[in-house]
């Protein structure tokens, strides 16, 4: 009986321990759930804060882009108010200035704008004048970009216009810049066209037709193109065509027959813009200056030997048929081909 009560007491103690462990586990689970909820709220708060910061940065970037398109400095306010000009400060690049109206930054301008409006400290600036300053500075900046673009080499009017359009300048600013550069003879399509023709003539890589096409793409009118092409010396053009054709013929004859090589020279010269009459004259002169039989014979033997070695795994009949077909495709004379094959058969 005593033992029975002892066992019951032990069971009760065990149940009590189990309940205690279960209670501890539940408390730990509740603490973990609580921490997760706090972390989730904090994470949501952080995400919301990050999103707000990203949106603010995006808005600032869009505003900066708008200011740039308007020709203003990046730190220019959206609304410019009238007042008295209290300070003119030089920017870091030494060529632009910050204007302060009633102690507040108003706008950044270039040196040309400062001189144009004769701005000085203490001057009264109303909203109309402030807008005029902003507009003029935007136009002057377009002029400066165009001027810098022309420093490297001559450009046509169309090229400069496209460059300024890429920079998102207004139509009025582009018109102002083009006119000013033209009046200074920095944009001159006539001078540009003549210079282009002389350069290509010396280089000897293009004929008059291709040059005319290139100038048309640059925006020059057909009448002006015809006028500037008078700079192209016909004798010089013929010499360029002959030199180019001769070099190309020497290259082609290594792999093709004389007839095929001549045709390739014609195609090449026509693609470079030389007219048909000049090309035919050049090709005829090249043919006259070469020993056709000697060149044909050497070129055929060189190509045939290479094909003969390439197809050595074939039977004699298949080998002969294959080599003969390839040589005919390259334009070699059939009699010369048969003669070579006969010599090859005798030697073998």
UniProtKB/TrEMBL annotation:
Domain RecX second three-helical: 188-229
Gene Ontology annotations for the cellular component aspect, listed alphabetically: cytoplasm
Biased composition (Polar residues): 41-54
Annotated Pfam families: RecX_HTH1, RecX_HTH2, RecX_HTH3
Region (Disordered) residue spans: 19-54
Compartments, record wording: Cytoplasm
Keyword set, alphabetical order: Cytoplasm
Any GO BP annotation: regulation of DNA repair
Chief site of localization: cytoplasm
RecX first three-helical domain segment(s): 142-181
Family: Belongs to the RecX family.
Reported function: Modulates RecA activity.
Name the UniProt record assigns to this protein: Regulatory protein RecX
């Amino acid at each position: 009986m005593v033992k029975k009560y002892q066992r019951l007491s032990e069971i009760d103690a065990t149940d009590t321990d189990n309940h205690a462990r279960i209670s501890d586990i539940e408390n730990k689970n509740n603490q973990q759930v609580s921490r997760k909820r706090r972390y989730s709220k904090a994470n949501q708060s952080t995400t919301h804060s990050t999103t707000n910061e990203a949106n603010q940065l995006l808005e600032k970037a869009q505003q900066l882009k708008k200011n740039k398109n308007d020709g203003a400095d990046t730190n220019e306010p959206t609304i410019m108010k009238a007042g008295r000009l209290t300070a003119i400060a030089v920017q870091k690049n030494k060529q632009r200035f910050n204007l302060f109206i009633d102690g507040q930054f108003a706008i950044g301008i270039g040196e040309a704008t400062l001189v144009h409006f004769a701005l000085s400290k203490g001057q009264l600036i109303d909203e109309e004048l402030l807008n005029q300053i902003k507009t003029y500075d935007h136009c002057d900046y377009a002029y400066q970009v165009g001027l810098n673009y022309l420093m490297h080499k001559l450009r046509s009017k169309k090229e400069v216009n496209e460059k300024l359009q890429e920079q998102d300048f207004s139509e009025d600013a582009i018109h102002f810049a083009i006119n000013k550069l033209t009046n200074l003879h920095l944009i001159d399509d006539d001078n540009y066209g003549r210079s282009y023709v002389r350069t290509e003539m010396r280089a000897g890589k293009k004929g008059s037709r291709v040059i005319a096409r290139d100038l048309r793409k640059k925006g020059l009118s057909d009448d002006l193109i015809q006028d500037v092409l008078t700079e192209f010396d016909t004798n010089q053009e013929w010499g360029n065509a002959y030199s180019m054709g001769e070099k190309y013929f020497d290259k082609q004859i290594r792999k093709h027959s004389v007839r095929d090589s001549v045709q390739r020279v014609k195609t090449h010269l026509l693609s470079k813009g030389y007219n048909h009459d000049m090309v035919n004259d050049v090709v005829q002169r090249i043919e006259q200056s070469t020993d056709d039989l000697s060149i044909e014979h050497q070129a055929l033997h060189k190509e045939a030997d290479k094909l003969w070695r390439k197809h050595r795994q074939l039977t004699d009949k298949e080998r002969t048929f294959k080599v003969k077909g390839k040589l005919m495709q390259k334009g070699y004379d059939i009699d010369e081909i048969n003669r070579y094959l006969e010599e090859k058969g005798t030697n073998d």
